[in-house]
Amino acid sequence: MFIDEIHFDAKGLVPVIAQDAKDGTILMLAWANKEALEETVKTGRGTYFSRSRSKLWRKGEESGNIQKVSEILLDCDCDAVIYKVEQIGGIACHTGHRSCFYKTLKGNAWEENSDVLKSPDVMYANHK
């Protein structure tokens, strides 16, 4: 079975990079356990394991910004995964940016490289 080939860490997790399937933008990095990966394969929806909440996290369950997974890739060491996704709503980051990687190092300071597309207060208004 595919899941048996993945090398999970001591906590039973593997890092997952969510990448825009169309333009290749790296949208976010999260973690998945076996259950999250199996659910992603079954449903086609980006599912992760929330380390802070110790439970499955179905991307977009609170923000509405779900991920439709079109392809899953495993690296050569079998210890990292990529979900190629269509980011429904266009926002992957809980800060309201398209990507979680919205800071670029300029000299020795971080500068934002993109605008907030939607205020987190608005995005999560129905879930507080």
UniProtKB/TrEMBL annotation:
One Pfam family cited in the UniProt record for this chain: PRA-CH
> Which residues does Mg(2+) bind?
75, 77, 79
InterPro entries tied to this protein = PRA-CH, PRib_AMP_CycHydrolase_dom, PRib_AMP_CycHydrolase_sf
Task: Give an example GO biological process.
Answer: L-histidine biosynthetic process
* Chain segments annotated as coiled-coil in the UniProt record: none
Function, as annotated, reads: Catalyzes the hydrolysis of the adenine ring of phosphoribosyl-AMP.
Q: How does it assemble?
A: Homodimer.
Its family remark reads:
In the N-terminal section; belongs to the PRA-CH family.
Q: What is the official name of this protein in its record?
A: Phosphoribosyl-AMP cyclohydrolase
Taxonomic source organism = Turicimonas muris
